[in-house]
Amino acid sequence: MSKERLYLFDTTLRDGAQTAGVEFSLEDKIAVTRLLEEIGVDYIEGGYPGANVVDDQFFAEKRTRRAVFTAFGMTKRAGRSVANDPGVQAIIASAASANCFVAKAWDHQIRIALGISLEENLKGLRETVAASAAAGREAMVDCEHFFDGYKANPDYALRCIRTALEAGARWVVLCDTNGGTLPSEIDEIVRAVTAEVPGDRLGIHAHDDTGQAVANTLAAVNAGVRQIQGTLNGLGERCGNANLVTIIPTLLLKPAFADRFETGVSAEQLARLTSVSRTFDELLNRAPDRQMPYVGASAFATKAGIHASALAKDPSTYEHVPPETVGNERSVMVSQQAGKSNLLTALKRHGIAIEKDDPRLDKLLKTVKEREARGYSYDGADASFALLAHKVLGTLPDFFAVESYRASVERRHNARGEQVTVTEAVVKIRIDGERLMSVAEGNGPINALDLAMRKDLGKYSDRIEDLELVDFKVRILDGGTGAVTRVLVESRDGSGERWYTIGVSANIIDASFEALYESINYKLLKAAPQAAGGAE
């Protein structure tokens, strides 16, 4: 029996940006897009062209390789044409391949919030969708407050759907905008809608204000919708959105869905889910939720005792799916048994071949666990993991050694009497026994150290000419005067590759320097023939 196709639509870069404390830079948006492509979503909604500088820059060029690059915006304003609406025109003129327009489907909201007639609302919806379709873009509509609208006036809510489809929309998405609808209501309303409209033209957009966004999404799928909207780790305003990191493995691993439906996510991509989830949290500079379903550090954790004994005999006793299917690992808390298969997968990603029974693998696993206990996190710092693996396996070339470094910050008045801050860094390194010293001034100690370390690398200088520091994030792991600081540095080079390195220390400058040092070493490692292939 053939399976029906479900389409995954990610709104992290738009809905997620509305989360308190979250602000995506251009580089963040590019990095998150890359993560989303790793897990095989079908649509990536990148934001709102015309709303701010970052989104304008992001939509200046196509940012996806496989997923449909999608722009979000509102239908045209009442009283003006589509051609004279700058918001609609910014969306249509962007590099996106698809446009998602939000339109109100609740008569109360239309009268109170918009102050227009119900017919004027339909007119704006119709003309906006038609303009997008005429421009050759896949058009879709988010029917805002749909479920409240349907409860209040089902005929009008359905007219909104039909108007969008007749104007050329590929999808119409039913939104539980305030997150207050319950799964039983979702099921009842969606079944009523799909009796009037084909389910393969409908989607679901659920918020988590009752803690049931995932349940509501799955209920809508069961009732007939075929597009699923959500975010990485459930990011979103108020209580968040439907969590795709929970929804995706449920669709792929639970027979109730896996036997009926298929998605664009492969088993290999599913096995990257834990890594992507944790990397995303690292980019946000926040601690991952240890108890998140499927991917949390405690999702497959068991304390020693009868549970651990039962696990040894039959893992399915306490594990509803094998942890490795989502890239996670079993953790028996007394022995912390975990990880060889995960480690081998990570090594393979870096072209390092090693047998499962090689004793060096046990040494690497032990080293990783020891360092993570000290504050390192390699989920979000893959380049640092590659360097550590080569070092433990004995395949890391000795490029250069740092003998010492110093950074000084001075606040003083310049010749015009203006107060200025001057930062200077001195770095001493050794290459093949030769000592080299560089001095540089920068915009703060990190920038100064970065410039000084790269100023003279002797025979390696030409190899790092295109190396660029892109982003820099700091997180305090423990409070108090002895706090441990974790620094994550993002770098890139002329090839377009981006990588992340990590540093941990009680001293923020030392942690930063370690991450910078690792970034340079990774850049050199990429071109080092003696490291190719890793451990043989």
UniProtKB/TrEMBL annotation:
SMART domains: LeuA_dimer. SUPFAM superfamilies: 2-isopropylmalate synthase LeuA, allosteric (dimerisation) domain (SSF110921), Aldolase (SSF51569). GO terms for biological process: isoleucine biosynthetic process; L-leucine biosynthetic process. Residues 6-271 form the Pyruvate carboxyltransferase domain. Keywords: Amino-acid biosynthesis, Branched-chain amino acid biosynthesis, Isoleucine biosynthesis, Transferase. Pathway: Amino-acid biosynthesis; L-isoleucine biosynthesis; 2-oxobutanoate from pyruvate: step 1/3. One of its GO terms (molecular function) is (R)-citramalate synthase activity. The keyword Lipid metabolism does not apply. Gene3D superfamilies: 1.10.238.260, 3.30.160.270, Aldolase class I. The keyword Repeat does not apply. Signal peptide: none annotated. Its EC number is 2.3.3.21. It catalyses: pyruvate + acetyl-CoA + H2O = (3R)-citramalate + CoA + H(+). NCBIfam families: citramal_synth. Belongs to the alpha-IPM synthase/homocitrate synthase family. This is Citramalate synthase.
